[in-house]
Amino acid sequence: MRVVVQRTKEASVTVAGEVVGKIEHGLLLLVAITHEDSEKDVNFVADKIAHLRIFEDEEGKMNRSVLETGGQILSVSQFTLYGDCRKGRRPNFMAAARPEQAEPLYDLFNQKLREKGLRVETGRFGAMMEVRLLNDGPVTLIVES
Q: What pTM value is reported for the model?
């Protein structure tokens, strides 16, 4: 499982002209699932992200989590994170899980974040999406299981 984590002041995702997910202060998550991923990977990554200390405290140090700051999550499925560009000019997406495997794990990941008390908005799995974000920092990290 691979997730690009971006600290945001605001973010939204639009499908066919309709805003389907929108947050203010929090994290935009671009989420990819690979063939070997399981519930164990989902639990690890959800816990890591919920407690990742990437928001400033009173002294300006990155010492607070999205949970501690009352931030929100915008979670967007993004199989292209497993695109292999080492050969040729067209990415190979063979490492990305098929939708029938990836979608249930993606849904479980979002559920696990909600169970931790986070407000989670999502895109629409498998759809062409427009993602807008105002990156805060910028702070961008990659979390993998």
A: 0.95
